[in-house]
Queue: 3 jobs
Job 1
Amino acid sequence: MAVTTTVDSPAATTSTTRLARRRGTFGPDKLWALAFATPYVAVFVAFVIYPIGYGLWLGSDPASYRALFSDPVYPITVANTLIYLLFGVNLKLLLALLLSGFFMRKGWWTKALLLVFMLPWAIPALPSYLSINWMLNGQWGLINNFIWLVAQVDGPPWLDTPGLAFASVIYGHIWKWLPFWTLIFLAGRMAVSRELYEAADVDGASAVQKFMHVALPLMAGMYLVCTMLSTIWALGDFNAVRFISGGGPALSTHVLAPLGIRNAFDLGDPKLGIAPVLT
């Protein structure tokens, strides 16, 4: 019986390998994956990469920063931003951490109260802040009318005094976002094992000791991450200042984000508007 031996040439082997690679690169599965991924990549480029690149290009003009630093409103805005972050972030998260312990209580009334407590966060920001602006109006606002009905005295000019106006902005920010962070910390507390609390009860620990030595150490990392996220979101918060105080009186309650919007749109200078954001 004759045995036939076929020896492939190197050229034929190379062409076969290239064909296999092409089939692997342009196979039907990869083509389908490319077809599905292309719209998401296009949206990401159009709405993330391009705006960031365009903003960096607008902010590359040194003349904009010279004009910004010479503006007397800018130092006040920087100080306001630091105060806004100091109280708006830390006070909000501290209250949220404490309230999450309150909502850990058992009972249907606690769940019902939590549902009502979540309403400020569920309501859109625009009507919420406009309602606060209406209530704080010095002439016909709800709060000053109530003070007049009860004490027959005029209420303070909430939005006409820089300190009171900026405190009202911080209050509005905390009121809006406190329920959200309370819910986050409540979920973190529920993740703590009940066995640790039971062991603390056996040792005779009080409620404060259980919080300090059980819950707080386990939630420290979560609290740090929430602080970072809240700081980033507060830096970009435009609605609170715009719709509660409008930046007034005399541009004294601006923070960096509303100042950038004011420079870009009210003054009609986009390059000057991007400068506060990048500083």
Note: The CA atoms of residues 115 and 179 lie 10 Å apart.
Job 2
Amino acid sequence: MGAVGRAKARARLLVSVLLTCAHASGRRRWTQHREAAAVAAHKFARAVHDAAQARLPTQAEGCPCADSSLCLPIAGSPLAEREIFGFIGGNGSTIDWSRVTTVAWAAPDDYALMCRAHAMGARVILSAPKPELVLTSNSTARAEWVSTAVAAVTASYHDGIVFDWESPCRVGSPMQYWYGVLIGETRAALRSVHAGYQVSTCVAWSPDNIDGRGYNVGAFSRSSDALYVMDYDTRSQVIDACIAGANAPFGGTVRGISRFLDLGVPASQLILGVPWYGYR
């Protein structure tokens, strides 16, 4: 038998042995796989926790507010009983703090806004930094991204992160699966630092594949504290005569929210974003 023949024979023997072992010890290996996955998940959470904890601000670490206690994260439930999101503008002097509970898309170095919001008991949250770069099965890349995101939150004395990835993504795409995983990993890491940190995720006005975004909103809901429903500029799918009309017709709002509820998303988790503007 030549070298090629011997190699093929060894390969056949190896396959036979592997198949026999797989059949005989499948249950044991599956148990070991689950145990290994649990250990890996624990190590991941611990590594991110340690990295973030090292940067967790305390009252003695250069707080930019006049009152150093204002640099501590907002305590309590990550969502207010009546959550009102506000988009950032200026230093917060025009925000109605009697109503707004969270200011989203804040700049990490906008300390004036952070101090003012915390003084009024409101959260200030950052935008997730390019999550599309790590929508992958590469757990090391995701862990590095999560660690960086957590460090950005703690170092800037903010209160969480809003995910706002809006690219088209077909139904069942691996990218959207890993997006849900990344959101969940980020929330777990932030919660390991402070129980009051908030994670929210932006979604279209309806879960029905708007603009090619066939997202698994159920998975996003399970991974997030809240879903921010972007119910504005909803006429992107007009296919007939484009005539003047509402930016976000009320009928569409009712339909979109109803569809989220149909899919099992809790009403208490939905934050409705509405347009306070129009176009000429």
Note: Strands lie at 85-87, 102-104, 123-124, 126-127, 160-163, 198-204, 226-230, 270-273.
Job 3
Amino acid sequence: MKVLVLNGSPKGEKSNTLNITKAFLDGFSADTEVEYITVKKETIKPCMGCFSCWSRTPGECVIKDDMQKIYERINSADIIIESFPLYFFGMPSQMKALTDRCLPYMLPYSGNVAEDKEASFHELRDEAMHEKRLLVITTCGYVSAEPMYPALIKQLDLICGNGNYTMIKCPEGELFIAEKAERQRKAYLDSITEAGREFCENRCLCDETMKKISKPILSPKVFGQCSENELVDSVCKLFGAFCTAVIEPTDINRDKSRNDKLNKVFEFSFIFKIKHRSY
């Protein structure tokens, strides 16, 4: 079995979402072939909307860039995993560019309507594509995933068809860079690995498993405390390093003057808060 992972995070290999994706793949059988493509490293030009892939060169994009290689990898894979964080209630721009360039897989629009359709809005050109499985693994920095994903889910439903893909939504993505909640983090990743084992065997996840891995790792209150404390620590370290490097008072009471200035900077850093971040 071949698995293609499309890492759509702008953070590349440092993506927090990728931690979940790798934990999921830990549940797959040892003979599984896994290939990773870091989307941000590829040259993917935007779709020009020329519709050549529907007319002049049916099923083929006329733009020659790294998407040609990605088409080949998609065609040979049994399972495609899209791994990315939620950015502004959708997929990151690099991943969106790749998605737009997948239009050649679809047949031209012929006046059909989306209502009451389980299939994608545009039918697939190659019926063999129905044998593949698409899995979307995504994180967000919010305490709950459900209110944050309707726009992305609607887009994927129109592209793939409702029920034709599996989506794992992980809230509280900040926890994957925090030093706290290590025990809860590990327990969550263990459940993700179990889900991967189930998906490898059945090519789908049961409702019970989906419910289990969709739960927030921490309560909203505890998560808020952890994320704010982690942020303050990071900002203090950053400002401290900066001030140690550039603040060099020339008066006689050198140490006291520098410490006073550092304290002012640290006091200011506590005012700085970021409520929501995605990884």
Note: Helices lie at 16-25, 67-76, 93-100, 150-160, 182-202, 207-213, 220-246, 254-269.
